[in-house]
């Protein structure tokens, strides 16, 4: 017979609030896109390099 108390279960990690990124708008326009303006929905799941 084991008289030891059971180990406590760890508390769940706190959830992070999801933050939506704003659309990318600027004076210079998009570079290297063939003149096509892009929005974030078209870039979802892709790697994007931003140069400010």
Give an account of the 3D structure.
- The protein is rod-shaped and about 75 Å long.
- It has one helix spanning 40-43.
- The protein has one helix and no strands.
- The N and C termini lie far apart (67 Å).
- It has 52 residues and is mostly loops.
- The longest helix is centred in the C-terminal third of the chain and has 4 residues, at 40-43.
- The mean pLDDT is 82.
Counting DSSP H or I runs of 4 or more residues, the number of helices is 1
Query: What structural class do the secondary elements suggest?
Result: little secondary structure
User: What is the total tally of β strands?
Assistant: 0
Helicity level: under 10%
Largest sheet: none
Outline, from the CA principal axes?
rod-shaped
Beta-sheet strand percentage? under 5%
Can you give the mean pLDDT? 82
Structural descriptors:
single chain, 52 residues, little secondary structure, 1 helix
In short:
Helices cover 8% and strands 0% of the residues. By secondary structure, the protein is largely without helices or strands.
Q: Secondary structure elements and their pairing?
A:
Blueprint: H1 40-43
């Amino acid at each position: 017979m084991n008289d030891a108390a059971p180990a406590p279960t760890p508390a769940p990690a706190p959830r992070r609030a999801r933050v939506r990124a704003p659309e990318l708008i600027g004076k210079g326009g998009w570079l290297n896109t063939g003149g096509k303006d892009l929005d974030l929905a078209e870039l979802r799941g892709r790697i994007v390099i931003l140069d400010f």
